[in-house]
Structure formats: structure tokens, C-alpha cells
Amino acid sequence: MAEIDRLAEKIEELRQRLCILVDSKQGNLNDPEVMALSAELDCQIVSYQRVRRAAADQK
After folding, report:
1. What is the pLDDT of residues 36-47, one digit of tens each?
2. Which Gene3D superfamilies match (predicted)?
3. Measured between alpha carbons, how far is 30 from 49 in angstroms, rounded to an integer?
4. What angle do CA 50, 55, 59 make, to 5 degrees?
5. How far apart are CA 45 and CA 8, in angstroms?
6. Coil, strand, or helix at residue 31?
7. Are 2 and 28 a contacting pair, CB within 8 Å?
8. What is the pTM of this model?
């Protein structure tokens, strides 16, 4: 599996987990668990964007 595909799957998994977690915290976006998972998702999105940019730069 290509790195970009792996990252896309991880992003989707984290997004779903974050939605479930926010629901379980009654929408509290300031909950430490929500903030930690959101930060992890942010890092994966940045990695995805870097891989896409690197691929585009090679063309």
C-alpha cells in the first residue's frame, strides 16, 4: 500500500474516532482526550499534505 493511501486510511480512522469521542464527551471540544486525538489527526493531515506536495513536485 502506498504511503499516501495508508495516511488517508489513518486520517479517516482518526476522524471517525474523534467524532465518536466528541459525542461521548457531550460535544466538549476542550476535553483533554478530544484535544489529544484532534492533535494526532492534525499531525496525520500535515503528513498527508507533505506526501502529496512531494509527489506533485516530482512531476
Report:
1. 999 999 999 999
2. Helix-loop-helix DNA-binding domain
3. 26
4. 145
5. 8
6. coil
7. no
8. 0.91
Helices (H), 1-59: 3-24, 32-57
Using CA atoms, how far residue 50 sits from 5, 29, 58, in Å, is: 13, 27, 12
What band does 59 get if pLDDT is binned at 50, 70 and 90?
confident
Nine-digit cell at 31? Answer: 476535553
All structural domains of the chain with their residue ranges: 3-57
Buried b (16+ CB within 10 A) or exposed e, 18-45: beebbeeeeeeeebeebeebbeebeebe
